[in-house]
Amino acid sequence: MPQNVKDITVLVGSLRRDSTSRKTALALSALAPDSLRLDLVETGHLPFYDQDFDRDSAFTPDSYRTFRDRIARADGVLFVTPEYNRSFPAHLKNAIDIGTRPYGKNVWSAKPAGVVSVSMGAMGGFGANQLLRQQLANVNMSVLQQPEVYIGGADKIFDSDGSVKVEATEAFLRSYLASFASWSDRLALAA
């Protein structure tokens, strides 16, 4: 990867292969500026966090090691999530927990983060978005505050391959990604 291109992992909140969250993540990857390379990282296969897994490295699942290493190498993280019962899905919380352990080895710390919430309803996953932002601040991620992204009516916005059917949404997502790129550059300079 060229030196000035940021490696951004994308975590998708829905496990369903044909979900609007996954389509949104694919659209973001396709629309990303040249300064960002977006890489979807799966989280559904990770066993629920159990501190016993980290009491001795012999007990730590390989999936934990691989996931932690991937996040540690990333220059930033985008979270694309649906809303389940006014919150984000359990496997995203599990992935966040895995990344903060063992104690003192938080792979999320000081990384730029962005949150995109998606729903078929009009509110665009507002509850999930806000709770996820709160969780990410708690693990010391620098969450992009503006613009906020809530995509309502998402089932009508994306084609089956993840391309955006609505021109205004495509323009907004391009603008969001440009803001994320610029903001993560500022964070890197301040570090």
How would you characterize this protein structure?
This protein has 191 residues and is an alpha/beta fold. The chain has a single domain (6-190), classed as Rossmann fold (3-Layer(aba) Sandwich). Helix content is 37%, strand content 16%. The longest helix has 24 residues, at 167-190. The radius of gyration is 16 Å and the shape is globular. The two termini are 21 Å apart.
Salient structural properties:
191 residues; Rossmann fold; alpha/beta; 5 helices; six-stranded parallel β-sheet
Q: What would CATH call the homologous superfamily?
A: Flavodoxin domain
Structural domain tally: 1
Order of helices and strands: EHEHEHEHEEH
* Percentage of β-strand residues: 15-25%
Unreliable stretches covering 5 or more consecutive residues: none
Main beta sheet: strand number and arrangement?
A: 6 strands, parallel
Q: Give the CA-based shape.
A: globular
Number of helices: 5
Helix vs. strand class: alpha/beta
Helix content: 25-40%
* CATH class group: Alpha Beta
End-to-end gap: 21 Å
Radius of gyration: 16 Å
In short:
By secondary structure, the chain is of the alpha/beta class. It contains five helices and six strands, in the order E-H-E-H-E-H-E-H-E-E-H. It is 37% helix and 16% strand.
